[in-house]
Amino acid sequence: MTDRPNLAALLADPGSVPADQIADAIGELERAKATLWARLAAPVPANGIGEDRLLTIDQAAERLGVTRDWLRRRPELPFVVKLSEGVARYSSRGIEQWIAARLRRGTC
């Protein structure tokens, strides 16, 4: 396994990357890009502490751009918080993390 390319050096002079390391360099750039996009998708409050709120199904559906039925059919989603039989809420922080993970994987 080769060492990960130095991003600063890569950005300063991309032409200096040896041919046999170009694929690794592109991979490193893609990892950095995915991390930055995820940070944009899930902004941190000014105080640096993300407050988690439990959202209603209407609020969660709006945030995700899906229907209430779509959410109801997916109780296994990691941000679903079951309060009691037939009563669910949705973690706002969990939704943001789920979106960020899907952006990193390129599935959004």
Q: Describe it for me?
A:
This protein is mainly alpha-helical. It has two domains: 1-41, no CATH class; 52-108, Multidrug-efflux Transporter Regulator, Chain: A, Domain 2 (Orthogonal Bundle). Helix content is 49%, strand content 11%. It has five helices and three strands. The chain has helices at residues 7-12, 22-41, 57-64, 68-72, 92-105; strands spanning 54-55, 80-84, 87-91. It has a three-stranded antiparallel beta sheet with strand order 1-3-2. A hairpin with a 2-residue loop joins strand 2 (80-84) and strand 3 (87-91). Helix 2 (22-41) runs antiparallel to helix 5 (92-105). The two termini are 30 Å apart.
What is the top-level CATH class of the largest domain? Mainly Alpha
Number of strands: 3
How many domains make up the 3D coordinates? 2
Reported for the largest beta sheet, the result is: 3 strands, antiparallel
**So what's the overall shape?**
elongated
Order of helices and strands: HHEHHEEH
**CATH topology description of the largest domain:** Multidrug-efflux Transporter Regulator, Chain: A, Domain 2
Count of helices?
Answer: 5
> Mind telling me the C-alpha Rg?
19 Å
Spans where pLDDT lies below 50 across 5 or more residues: none
Report the sheet-strand fraction. 5-15%
Q: Structural class of the helices, strands and pairings?
A: mainly alpha
Can you tell me the CATH architecture of the largest domain? Orthogonal Bundle
On the 0 to 100 scale, the average pLDDT is: 83
Strand order in the largest sheet? 1-3-2
Whole-Å distance between the termini? 30 Å
Helical amount among residues, as a percent range?
40-55%
